[in-house]
Amino acid sequence: MQHAPLGHMQFNVRGEHLPFYRDLLTFLGWGLIGEWPGMIGLGSLDGQSLWFSGQVKEVSNDYDGPGLNHLAFAAASIADVDEAVAWLQAHDAPALFETPRHRPEFAADEQSTYYQVMFETPDRILIEIVYIGPK
User: Fold this and answer.
1) Do 87 and 45 belong to one domain?
2) Strand 112-120 vs strand 95-102: parallel, antiparallel, or unpaired?
3) Which of 3, 18, 83, 88 is 20 to 30 A from 98 via CA?
4) 54 neighbors 15 (Cβ within 8 angstroms)
5) CATH code of residue 15
6) Cβ(51)–Cβ(11) under 8 Å?
């Protein structure tokens, strides 16, 4: 079998939080595919899509348990990560784990960096925005 690229992912979230996901993903450059009562879909330029359904059971997400730990979005520069941090602050989504910061242990070599911010969505989905490349 050839490499199968990621097609789409669906996240179940509380309906009242759907605008947060729409606003976050459009800030990150994803286009709105559609928005319906209880559901939104956003697509990237290379064909992937993320769907958020507002139909959930009342259980809590634990990203350290079985299942998805976090979703990472690639940033084009350190400045883009810092711009995302400002967006998060304006939307009451605090950075976690002493981020934003450089992570030399994840960098490919001395001339490269791994610069990240980690945060939780209102539904406790852990998200990373990361720049990996030259310092």
Assistant:
1) no
2) antiparallel
3) 18
4) yes
5) 3.10.180.10
6) yes
Residue-wise pLDDT for 92-121, tens only, equals 999 999 999 999 999 999 999 999 999 999
Residue type, 49: S
Q: Which structural domain range is residue 13 located in? A: 7-56
How many domains does the chain fold into? 2
Tokens read off for 104: 């030399």
Task: Kindly report, residue by residue over 44-62, the tens digit of the pLDDT.
Answer: 888 899 999 998 788 877 8
- Residue 2 is assigned to a structural domain of this protein: no
Asked whether the whole model's pTM tops 0.85, one would answer yes
Same domain, 77 and 134: yes
Q: Phi and psi for 67 in degrees, rounded to 5?
A: 115, -165
